[in-house]
Amino acid sequence: MRASYPCVSVIITTHNRMPEVVLRAVNSVLKQTYCNIEIIVVDDSKPDYPLRHDVESSVKKASGKIIYIKHETSKDTYFCVIVDEYQDCVVEQHRIFLEVNKTVPVYILGDPLQSIFGWAGKPVSWNNIGFERVFVETAPHRWERGNAELGQYLTTVRDILMPSLEGKIVRLSTIPNGSFIKRIFPAVARGAGLYSEMNHYQSALYLTKWPQAQCSFSRQTGGIFQNDEPQNLNDLYNYAQYLDTDNGYTRTETIYSFIEECATQVNAELGSYKKHIKEENFDFGKIKKHPEFGKRILKLYQNHGYEEMLSVLEWVKANSTF
Questions:
Q1: In this predicted model, what pLDDT tens digit does every residue of 51-78 receive, in sequence order?
Q2: Exposed e or buried b for every residue in 189-210, given b needs 16+ CB within 10 A?
């Protein structure tokens, strides 16, 4: 009994290609040893392409069983294609958009200075992008109300850095000309000098190379700076295991440890409570700071319920100090 072979459809797409190129693809399929094959050629060439009729004629002469379709849906349906964040596009993706651009206009948006490094693929080169480049004049709107002069400085820095994308050496001064940035030397950033300096500002941002250094600085400044540390799922899972224990002391200590991990300013404000909890001393009568926190912690220790745990967390969340 003869074996049954399922039909395999082979779709060949073409756009403004030479007839011999299309025919080469068709003949490659016809030479396959698998017998039950259906060949469909979809021609997406422009109507005014002079060799479109020759492509159709060549394909039909190769085999009378080939289905030839003149396809113009993409052109008639889409006015254009817009691709955002193109700085993260890799070479393989770029080739696809170049092909699409032959049928439907492709407009790309991107900023090469905002590239995300480490993609699994070679990023596209902006020196040979293949699309017409249009430079749009922009302004640092987010700085206009807060610090317009700083925004203008950052725009200037951006212009200086742009040639580095082409492998050129750039020189950037770390001391901007203007009063919008003030350099504080390390000696000032310690002790009373820091308190005096911070009185001139409503808010300040401290940046470090490593998160550990930022956390250490926050702890040394006695609560002037806070360091909000993101919690990964492993930390949450470990805390959840301890909180699942129906024990007042364990739940109280775990809740405090979790709050302490989330914001380094907690110790500066609630350090006295931490000492009492460690000693299993829940008589907070002598602690004058944040008495409401003491009441909620005591209630958690006594009742050790989920509502009491949420009550402590909600108080911390609502307190603007943290």
A1: 878 888 888 888 777 888 776 655 556 6
A2: eeeeebeeebeeeeeeeeeeee
CB 68 within 8 A of CB 59: yes
Place of tokens 């249009």: 134
DSSP secondary structure string, 137-157?
A: P---GGGHHHHHHHHHHHHHH
Is-contact 5 34, C-beta < 8 A?
A: yes
pTM of the prediction? 0.38
Q: Which of 7-21, 37-51, 217-231 has the lowest mean pLDDT?
A: 217-231
Domain chopping of the chain, boundaries: 8-73, 78-128, 233-318
Name 10's bridge partners: 39
Report the pLDDT value the prediction gives residue 90, as an integer from 0 to 100: 82
Q: Which residues contact 100 (CB under 8 A, 6 or more apart)?
A: 81, 106
From the list 87, 90, 68, 178, the residue with the least C-alpha distance to 126 is: 87
| DSSP result, 99-134 | HHTTTS-EEE---GGGPPP--SSPBPPGGG-SS---
Distance, in Å, from the CA atom of 279 to the CA atom of 72, rounded to the nearest integer, reads: 79
Torsion angle in degrees (nearest 10) through CA of 149, 154, 156, 161? 170
